[in-house]
């Protein structure tokens, strides 16, 4: 029963462009052929103080048809949840493949699946039929989420060094799993970090790409604690608010994460217990965590023989892309700085022209120069907005994706670990068998009986104990780990697919926002020049 | 092979207002300018090659004309500082806006200088101007004797005269006004230059971003990858447009208002120098008067003579100065107006072109398949 280690994952389907609205009815699913869902546009928006998010078309109210999606939910059970990898080698604990009734760790494949319309949190389709990847892709295409989050009203709470900023987190939804249609809570930054920590502990074991929250900043926060009024504090708070909003929007856009009870609690619960472990999650902490995992994987002696090159290729792509985005980010950073400089230069020039206009005794020229000074002042305003646009639209987009790619690498690593767990279980099984065989040959039936009757406590949730032999234990573990590995592989593939689609959508909508802002800017500029021209002509 | 410059008042044989510098050739350090001027009689042009040293030769000759009454009252058209092919940072800073744009603004400034000299009623009578513009050989490079116009010779004590109270309200007002304007204009020109330099940096950064995006384009059949690659190419084009836009904006700035502010600034300095020369003459006159009064009978006649001569000189200078100032006021307003109008028109055009470009890009994105 020992599976070979070079088992092939199911073949990746040929290039398909799943357009929203086109579902292959021949699939046998009960998916409707018609897509009534509009994909959510991306969470990033230019800085704004108002709570209404600038989304794409709103989703029509009735999102969820009563489809039975039993067959479309594939193996999404929790599988083995060992807290410590080293436990695998101890014969102390054993967790059989169980469906945890608490669905907090449950992952749904399709966004539009029926089970979501049930408001209870328990759902465990017993059927674990593997679906083809084609189906997975099509279900992805019908991404539609009627959850809208906005983060607004940053307010300083408290005084001195213990002060913090509380944000209003507003949710608007038509999903019945929430208590009401619109609601809001107040959250502080460490709450967001706490949410991330909870999610990453649970979900990343399944190969999910968990969005990353913005980084801590001691410098930024200290300034805010002192006073929220100076421009750099205002900018810092705004930057953080926008980043938190994007983070949260990405979380709720993710079909599996939205199901997570911690996410719902975060959105709904008025009184959230304070997250205490966030000390560890410093700015570079997230990436350090992921990189540490990578290193651990690389150090493992058993190297994976990848028969399907998809994972290897993809991983290299991801690494390369991360480097490219870093370069891009550096360039955008310098662009933002130059724009800020231009604001300063323009303001200073405007002043110098005003002075020149005042000193000028030719009245027409004097007036024209003063007008010029005003035009330059207005242009400074334009440059400010342009700099903000550069920053919030591009620089932050790039840094979000740099972090997200790190998270993607993380889920590849999770898959590697799953593989290694499986391999190690196999080799342990092999050893056990050999040991048993030796005993057999040595003709020591008593010892053999003893070995066979080793009882280990089962921590089966149903509470019953079962006596099980060691070999059976390891056999079932091997099966379990193999299934886990397959499952993670599928999830990773699906997640990466989804990620790439989201990324393209995100970039596209951002560049369009950027162009629209630029166009507005240019049009205002044209108005300024058109107003100034007659003044200039009127001289002499 | 030019003989001594004669003082015969010979008219210039070319038009002054449309002298053009058509080309600049860089040879190592040296820059050579090709100057084209139109003959007064009939059709025909003069093409001559000159270096900055030749310009300086011309300027020195203008300064040192001997028998032009009241020459010190002339506001001399300012000559831009010397530029070299491999200019140091210090020189570039001194040149300001003229150091930008591959010497095009610099040529324009030299052109303006020649036009102003050639159309100046007093200065264009100097044979050196004719020689400079028409002689196929380079003008003689012999150093002309040092004269009081040499800025560097103004000793510290001379500077104190700058604040000397005037006897004439017209001139006192003009001096005060000039002082303020010189400062303001210089500042404005500097700040404008800062703006332009930053605009250039933005253009460069946009170019970098555009190029870097091309690196994100990957080959492959994967539809998502292709979609993203296409996106990257499009975004790259947007930033390329932005680069072109910013480059145009900076160029427009340099070629119109930049040049205008630079010229205004240098011209104000030239007026300042003229007013200073007059003030120095005034001080000289007052000293001469005092000397004449205090002179012992032996010296008295000589002192009186000096006083009279100085008085005449001073009056001549004042006469010329008044005219020059009046003209200067008119010319500078016209020049600034022209600069402002051109600046506005060019920036308006660039803004409209950019709007069209960005619109096209936006439509292209909207049309892109999901």
From TrEMBL, chain A:
Main localization category: other
**Which cellular compartments is it found in?**
Cell projection, Lamellipodium; Early endosome membrane
Q: Where is the composition biased (Acidic residues)?
A: 26-35, 59-70
What are the coiled-coil residue ranges?
Answer: none
InterPro entries assigned to the protein according to its UniProt record, in alphabetical order = AH/BAR_dom_sf, PX_dom, PX_dom_sf, Sorting_nexin_N, Vps5_C
Q: Where is this region: Disordered?
A: 1-145
Alphabetically sorted, this entry's keywords are: Acetylation, Cell projection, Endosome, Lipid-binding, Membrane, Phosphoprotein, Protein transport, Transport
Domain PX, chain residue ranges per copy: 145-274
Output one GO MF annotation: phosphatidylinositol binding
- Chain intervals with Polar residues compositional bias: 39-50
| GO annotation (BP), single | early endosome to Golgi transport
Q: Where is the composition biased (Low complexity)?
A: 110-127
Its placement in the membrane is given as: Peripheral membrane protein
Q: Does the keyword Membrane apply?
A: yes
UniProt-listed SMART domains: PX
Function of the molecule? Involved in several stages of intracellular trafficking. Interacts with membranes containing phosphatidylinositol 3-phosphate (PtdIns(3P)) or phosphatidylinositol 3,5-bisphosphate (PtdIns(3,5)P2). Acts in part as component of the retromer membrane-deforming SNX-BAR subcomplex. The SNX-BAR retromer mediates retrograde transport of cargo proteins from endosomes to the trans-Golgi network (TGN) and is involved in endosome-to-plasma membrane transport for cargo protein recycling.
Task: Report the family membership.
Answer: Belongs to the sorting nexin family.
Which protein are we looking at?
Sorting nexin-2
UniProtKB/TrEMBL annotation, chain B:
Tell me the ranges covered by the PX domain, including all copies: 1-140
InterPro entries in the record, alphabetically? AH/BAR_dom_sf, PX_dom, PX_dom_sf
Q: Name one GO biological process term.
A: protein transport
User: Mind telling me which Pfam families this protein's record contains?
Assistant: PX (PF00787)
- Molecular function GO terms recorded: phosphatidylinositol binding
Keyword field? Protein transport, Transport
**Is the Transport keyword given for this protein?**
yes
Q: Which domain of life is it from?
A: Eukaryota
Q: Does the keyword Metal-binding apply?
A: no
* Family, per entry: Belongs to the sorting nexin family.
What name does this protein carry?
Answer: PX domain-containing protein
